[in-house]
Specification:
The longest helix is centred in the C-terminal third of the chain and has 15 residues. The protein folds into two domains: 148 residues, D-Maltodextrin-Binding Protein, domain 2 (3-Layer(aba) Sandwich), CATH 3.40.190; 87 residues, 3-Layer(aba) Sandwich (D-Maltodextrin-Binding Protein, domain 2), CATH 3.40.190. The strands form two sheets. A six-stranded mixed β-sheet has the order 2-1-3-10-4-11. It has ten helices and eleven strands. Helix 4 packs across helix 6. With 259 residues, the chain is an alpha/beta fold.
Length: 259
């Protein structure tokens, strides 16, 4: 009887999934919510670094996490062929300032993403060859982007900041110019094996969402930026071989950056 109860409890165990609550994840979540997986998972949405911390602390089993967390996990399994990536300008991850980047003396680092912050550090050192003072930012730091103080802003807030700041330096475009490779900001990473059947269904759910972008756009009216442009020209969802090369190079470079 005890064995049967244990087996039933195992079957009933829901997989804890963490996802980023940004516009760029809506296509992936669109597919997930229309799959048969919703009765098998508990879905939580947070900002990137929070989801990363949850995965690191085993509060979730899989998360759409900033890729910079991968070296910090005891186990890391990328479980889908989809990601939040870019082959050129991503639009929603940039260094913003009132002056040209050469005049910037301080850069405020967005608290919401470890990957974007580390990407900025790599690019400032290797690509722009600048060494401004770097400061970890708190909430509502965008009002401090003025004079020679710049800021790394990510996500939906970056799409808004494009309309405010005089200068915008897209980090994905800079990475492509620097390395010739696309960039991966976030991927679905599990901290334990989740089973072939689940991973296959999860992957297909992602694919469904990416193939129904018109419906995703219709569900998410957003006057600040054209979402169809964002989903088709800025964000590149397929985790192909070139993106995997870009990801491997970035993780290699992280070893040379003091976070």
């Amino acid at each position: 009887m005890g064995f049967l109860c244990a087996k039933l409890a195992e079957l009933d165990k829901r997989i804890r999934v963490g996802a980023v609550s940004y516009l760029n994840t809506r296509p992936l979540l669109f597919g997930l919510r229309r799959s048969g997986l919703m009765n098998r998972i508990d879905l939580m949405e947070e900002y990137p670094s929070k989801v990363a911390a949850m995965l690191l602390n085993d509060e979730i089993d899989v998360g759409l996490v900033p890729v910079a967390i991968i070296p910090h996990l005891k186990e890391a399994h990328i479980i889908t062929d989809y990601c939040i990536g870019a082959v050129g300008e991503v639009a929603s991850v940039a260094l913003f300032s009132e002056v040209p980047i050469e005049q910037v003396t301080t850069v405020l680092l967005d608290y919401q993403s470890r990957t974007s912050v580390n990407l900025a550090k790599v690019l400032l050192k290797e690509y722009w060859k600048l060494s401004p003072v770097l400061e970890n930012a708190k909430e509502d730091f965008r009002s401090s982007i003025r004079g020679t103080t710049a800021g790394i802003v990510i996500g939906d807030r970056a799409l808004e900041q494009r309309k405010i700041s005089a200068y915008s330096y897209d980090l994905a475009a800079a990475w492509k110019a620097h390395t010739g490779l696309p960039f991966v900001f976030a991927a679905w990473v599990a901290n334990k094996p989740l089973g072939e059947d689940f991973e296959d269904a999860f992957n297909r759910a992602n694919g469904y969402g990416v193939s129904h972008l018109s419906e995703v756009v219709a569900e998410n009216p957003y006057p600040v930026y054209d979402l169809m442009t964002y989903y088709t020209q800025n964000i590149s969802y397929r985790l192909d071989e070139e993106k995997r090369k870009g990801l491997a190079l970035f993780l290699e470079k992280l070893g040379n950056i003091v976070a």
